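User:
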Amino acid sequence: MEPLVCLVVLVLAKSLLLSQYTLTAASSNDTERSALLAFRDQITSDPSGVLKAWNNSIHFCKWYGVTCSRKHPGRVIALDLASRGMAGAISPAVTNLTFLRKLLLMENGFNGDIPQNIGHFHRLQQLNMSFNSLYGSIPASLANCSELRFIDLSANKLTGMIPVELGYLSKLDQLVLDNNSFVSVLPSSLGNLSSLTILSINCGVGSSSTSYCLHGNIPEELGNLAKLKLIDVSGNMLSGTIPPSLFNLSLLHTFAAGINQLHGSLPPSISTTLPYLENLKFGGNSFTGPIPVSLSNASRLAIVDLSQNNFTGQIPPDIGRGGNIWYINLEINQLEANDVSDWRFMGSLTNCSSLKILALDDNNLGGALPSSIANLSNEIQKIYMGGNYISGSLPSGIQNLANLYTLDMTLNQLTETIPEGIGKLQNLQFLGLSSNKIIGHIPASLGNLTQLASLYLDDNDLEGPIPSSLGSIQRLNELQLSMNRLNGSVPVEILSLSYLSNFIMLSDNFLTGSLPIEVGRLRNIRTLLLSHNKLYGEIPTTISGCVSLEVLELDDNMIQGTIPPSLSNIRGLQILNLSNNSLSGSIPQSFGSMKGLQELLLSHNNLSGSIPKVMEDMTGLIYLELSYNNLQGEIPKKGIFSNASAISVTGNPGLCGGLSQIHLTACPLKTFEKRTRWRLLLTVGTPIACFILFSSFAFLIYKRQSRKRASSEISMNSHFPRITYGDLLRATGGFSDDNLVGRGRHGSVYKGILEILNTTTVAVKVFNLAEQGASRSFSSECKVLRTVRHRNIIKAFTSCSSIDSRGHDFKALVYEFMSNGSLETWLHPQTEEEQHKSQSLTFIHRLSIAIDIADALEYLHEGCQPPMVHCDIKPGNILLDNEMVAHVADFGLAKVLSGSSRASSRSSIAIRGSIGYVPPEYGVGGQATTSGDVYSYGILLLEMLTGKRPADDMFKNGLTLRKLVEMQISSEGFLNIVDPLMLPQNHASKEEECFVSVALVGLSCSIDSPYERPNIAEVATKMHAIKTGIKN
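Assistant: Predicted structure:
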């Protein structure tokens, strides 16, 4: 009986337990299903329809993206909905899936916050929510997910601090937080993640402002991450030096810290301490010193990016020894090469069979280009070596680089001819040989480059005709052949290229013949420059077929006939320059419909008749040049004519009336009418005879006139990246006041990050085109900055001429951002923060800044051909980078001279510059000269020495800054006028002597007579000597 009772009890107990398990399982199933349904209900878009099957027709473990446990049936262990295009919020109820190990929601459109209760995922091992639109901060509760091995929250809109609690995730192997908008330091607690192999917090892409990135120093504690293989903290605002302990992470294969504000030097033993190093990315910082020679021993090295720093010395001669480098970027440094031995690195790079990109532009590389460049890998795609001092010639073997599609050697000193074999580079898309000393003819073989989009051969000594074979380059979009000695006619073949949508620039040559009627085929061309040639004949009426044209410059030729009224059909035309020709007839009435035209230059022709009154309706016009014609009658008074400084009508004796500032005689009504009738009778009676006679004389006279060659391009070269208004809108956060750096006479400057440049903070100067002279200032800056390259001149990355969101014209320049602002804020601080900073501006700092400015001016005056005059040297136009190196900026008033460095500018000018810095000769109608810049520099020196503005209220009744210094320099009271912040505490006599030396230089530069001033080269030599004296 007892065994039977026991059996019954066991059966009952088992049934009870089974019932309890069933109830628990059912309850768990309900919880899991409810959590999934709650997640589904928050989805607002499911374009692939994968959630339609999430219903009661099948068990939730069979729903798309859901994986359940075999060990624990009904328990969800993975939810994978990656790349389904979904949108909506992430329901907090999803955290009820307590057995979840993988949550993969990347590449969707989820928005809203990450659930604050995400810490309930105690078993979670993989979390990937990258490439969504999540915002808010990372919940600190994420640290409760102690089993986490992988976190990827990159490419979202997350803000706030990175939680220090993440340092508790001891099993974490990978942490990826790239491309968010954190405002955070890099937590030192991350140094506790002993299992971490990948740490990536790259803010370089997707952030509209560097305000939303990491800042502060790189923590020393990261050196504890012994298993780390990759660290990427690029594109942030990290400062200071890289902790030495990070260079001891022996397993590291990728070290990326580019585009920050880091400084210091690279350790000499870098290849020894980082034996597995493959990718070294430190570009866009302020590192100094040499590139370690030991880098040649890093046998695994594949990517080297040390660009945009201040590295000096030679490139390691055996840098290519390992043979694995495929990308090397050393551009924008101060690396040197002077002889054959300094170029040995090129030979070692021939060992790199996979080399694709070589960028050495904007350094101090000199000496002859080695022939070994032709022995580089057949895989090479891009070679950038512009902006150096490289001499010699392109080797004929360059034709062997079959996969090359970019060759940029602009701004060097190359000589000899272009090798004919260059036409064998069938994949070439960009060829830049501008601003060298290349001679000979343009090879006809260039016509074989069927993929070529950009051809830059300007500013050389090329001669002969333009090859008609260029018309075979069907993809050609940019053709720049200006400033050579080319002759012959404009080939009809290049006017039939349908891809030509950017520009044709043929200015400053000796081209002859008439402009072919085929020019009208260029329906997509935006800029056509043919100025400063010997073209004759008439402007073809077919030119109206260039419907996309924005800039047309035909000035300084011998073009005859009348101005075609059909030009008014080019609705987008902004600049029309037909000056210095032999045009006759009247100004077309149809010009009144050209609402978008900004500059119209018709001076030095034989135009007659009256100025059409309809030109008052040209609302976009900001500059009108009609001088030296035979125009007659009354000048209109409205529109552009209401601004006397915006028009020029000198040299038209028959004109009368207009604004009083134009100083023309009033128009007697009756006399005027009689003369008009008489002129009409003459015009009707003898039109043909007058035309032939007048044109013949004009042609003969014009042939004897001296011609001047000067660049008239207003756009940047194509190796400057092309950007849109939208790019700048995003880069500056919608031109928000938070990113506003300052305002000037012609516009505002914003800071921002421009993704296309892959660089750190840039300065965006937006021109206020409603201000008089703003458009011309933009043009002037473009013309200057496209050609100048110097470490002490602001670097222009690119320009933008477009239409803004309201349909208005938009012009902007993008510069390198100067983190320490202008010298003005240091000398004359306004805010409490500026006053605090200015305390550290010592005499040595000021002396170094003054030398930087002198070096920049010496380059403009002596190093540029033709010389350039800045015309507005003052503290506000001197910008300081994070190393307090000075950069001369704002070339809106700059002039390119036509003769020697002391030659006058082409035309007389109004007063150029700023009050207090303008040389006396400018005030009495003098012309822009290099001596004028020297005067402004002298005043600036005295201002830096005394801390007093030249326009200070104390200077009145004949007393000026210069006179104050001149009176005190020989007296015992001289130190009383020196800025107290510079005075040494121990009254060191050597520094006091230097004060006097600098003052004497300033006084000699600011002498009233321009002929008694020293040239800038002499000034620079003296300033360098003063600094050397202090060091010694």
